[in-house]
Design a protein that fits this description.
GDP-dissociation inhibitor activity; 24 strands; disordered C terminus; alpha+beta; FAD/NAD-bd_sf; 22% helix; 20% strand; 15 helices; 615 residues; globular; Guanine Nucleotide Dissociation Inhibitor, domain 1; RAE2 geranylgeranyltransferase
């Protein structure tokens, strides 16, 4: 691939269009090295890897914004006549101009590439916003990561809630989206970070947090009886809520207090252990609206598949995360979820790691006598030896995955002109769980991002929808989109539709969920080859962190996983450690890359790229 993160990546708008085009066409990959088989010795055998990424299916994109005469529109700051990965996938007004817009955000690992640029006439004010508290460990130590608690433009008059509903949203043309395409950082996977989750703890412990910035999710929403409303979740929210009666407030606080230490009161839930959490809630002193809030917006679990204990665990996790960094349990990384893998790449590079873009692998080389993998062969015809090999599931061929049964995740990404719930502040990060439309269908998780998250241009919102797949992504998610948003492009629409946020652009796609698959399900893999999965459908990142730690401990059982790093100037290298290795790769600064690649360094980051990389 020519971008970081695989299916965890983030793209600018033009980069996403290129990605869409690639996955819609599924073009064959030409081998640069046709005779790599000659590199396999008599006592070796090859396990061929997949030449195509088949983890993405059913990609459909739609433009609902007005298409004005904008054939010559370019992204702001685009460099003309530079080679771009693939071809852009936009049909319509911006097709030619998109070819000249390299997706720089998704290919540069250096920290400087994410800093807000100098303000220009076309730059939204939100790009210059962002200040707040720092992410700290439990003992109060600072880790240098600012929370992007952004404020609105200085001098801007905030409208009262009653005035906002009557205001007409600013009309956004498709050409404006193209022109401001670099303001978008669109994630392939939609997740949030629990403030006391495994990933936040790992970021703090490993000091990777210094490479990223975060913004609080500002509100939890619920969809009930055809309306979107805010859910009170903290103690202050509950007692300040005008939605709940005084009796309901007492009911809710009593139940949430029980959930925080439910293990100490087994007599209150043991007889319902074989029931669903929804059935357990009906036995409690809770009104239907409170049951709905707890099930869908606090525990965020399935009404039909979640047991009582699982629901209590989810509720407790939600409550324990409240108040650490804000009034909700969640954080979102500025510039998108794709920043997280890049942050780990930056830390890895500081200590000699090398990340190769546009550097595909042909096969694994296995020793017939020992049964262990001893090397890989890349598309330049070069053998690279190692003791351990970690392979992402999508690289394995169909013959290796014959007995593997995959799940699918349905995803949609929308660009809209206003929030699903307007308030006196435009800069809201919201999470909403929409209950199943029909029995047997999953609930849909909706995450709405404002421009101060650095994921979309000013006056727009970026909306992610996710659920486990039952059909194609469009079939799973379009009914929910139609409930929450206005898809009608006709001028004559019903008043009810006009009150909804208007969708300007949308893409639907299915992505493979390879989490939870046992390694023994893969045929013929050597014992020193480890398989990691792509993104799962859960809201948090615990699955990925647990899997990374498990693989690491299997390889290095006596080592600590992601310890706090030493200062680079304090590291003393032994002569053996810095000696050049036979493979041509080394931690030594004197080591030169092969002629087919070039090494670029900036601020301690290292990446090996092909000669035709942009800038």
């Amino acid at each position: 691939k020519n971008y970081y993160g695989g299916n965890w990546a983030s793209f600018s708008f033009s980069g996403l269009l290129s990605w869409i085009k690639e996955n819609q066409e599924k073009t064959d990959i030409n081998d640069e090295c046709q005779d790599w088989g000659k590199l396999i010795l008599d006592n070796e055998e090859a396990i061929c890897l997949s030449r195509k990424d088949k983890t993405i299916q059913h990609v459909e994109d739609f433009c609902f914004a007005d298409r004005d005469s904008a054939e010559d529109v370019e992204e702001a700051g685009a460099l003309p006549k530079l080679p771009v990965f693939g071809a852009t996938g936009a049909e319509g007004v911006a097709q030619e101009s998109e070819k000249e817009c390299p997706p720089m955000e998704s290919t540069l690992p250096e920290a400087e590439s994410r800093q807000p640029e100098k303000a220009t006439d076309t730059e939204p004010a939100s790009a210059m916003e962002g200040s707040g508290t720092e992410i700290t460990s439990e003992n109060g130590g600072s880790h240098g990561t600012a929370l992007g608690e952004s404020t609105l433009e200085s001098g801007k008059t905030e409208a009262a809630p009653s005035e906002i509903s009557a205001q007409e949203p600013k009309k956004i043309m498709y050409s404006q989206i193209v022109r401001e395409g670099r303001r978008f950082n669109i994630d392939l996977v939609s997740k949030l970070l629990y403030s006391r989750g495994l990933l936040i703890d790992l970021l703090i412990k490993s000091n990777v947090s210094r490479y990223a910035e975060f913004k609080n999710a500002t509100r939890i929403l619920a969809y009930r009886e055809g309306k979107v409303e805010q859910v009170p979740c903290s103690r202050a929210d509950v007692f300040n809520s005008k939605q709940l009666t005084m009796v309901e407030k007492r009911m809710l606080m009593k139940f949430l207090t029980f959930c925080l230490d439910y293990e100490q009161h087994p007599d209150e839930y043991q007889e319902y252990e074989n029931n669903t959490f929804a059935q357990f809630l009906r036995t409690q002193t809770l009104t239907p609206s409170l049951q709905h809030f707890i099930l869908h917006s606090i525990a965020m679990v399935s009404e039909t598949d979640c047991s009582t204990v699982e629901g209590l665990q989810a509720t407790k996790k939600f409550l324990q995360c409240l108040g650490r960094y804000g009034n909700t349990p969640f954080l979102f990384p500025l510039y998108g979820q794709g920043e997280i893998p890049q942050c780990f790449c930056r830390m890895c590079a500081v200590f000699g790691g090398i990340y190769c873009l546009r550097h595909s692998v042909q096969c694994l080389v296995v020793d017939k006598d020992s049964g262990r993998c001893k090397a890989i062969v890349d598309h330049f015809g070069q053998r690279i030896s190692a003791n351990y090999f970690i392979v992402e599931d999508s690289y394995l061929s169909e013959s290796t995955c014959t007995n593997v049964c995959y799940r699918q995740i349905s995803r949609a990404v929308l660009i809209t002109d206003q929030s699903v719930l307007n308030t006196d502040s435009e800069q809201q990060v919201s999470i909403l769980t929409v209950p199943p439309v029909d029995l047997g269908r999953p609930a849909v998780c909706v995450i709405e991002l404002c421009s101060s998250t650095m994921t979309c241009m000013k006056d727009t919102y970026l909306v992610h929808l996710t659920c486990p797949s039952t059909n194609t992504a469009r079939e799973d998610l379009e009914p929910v989109v139609q409930k929450l948003f206005n898809l009608n492009t006709e001028k004559e629409t019903e008043i009810e539709e006009l009150e909804k946020p208007r969708v300007l652009w949308a893409v639907y796609f299915n992505v493979r969920d390879s989490s939870g698959i046992d390694k023994n399900s893969y045929d013929g893999l050597p014992p020193n080859v480890y398989v990691c999965s792509g993104p799962d459908s859960a809201l948090g990142n615990d699955c990925a962190v647990k899997q990374a730690e498990t693989i690491f401990q299997e390889m290095f059982p006596t080592e600590e996983f992601c310890p706090a790093p030493p200062n680079p100037e304090d590291i003393i290298y032994d002569e053996d450690e810095i000696a050049p290795e036979e493979s041509g790769f080394s931690n030594s600064p004197e080591t030169k890359p092969e002629s087919s690649t070039e090494e670029s360094s900036s601020g301690g980051s290292t990446a090996v790229k092909k000669e035709d990389t942009e800038e």
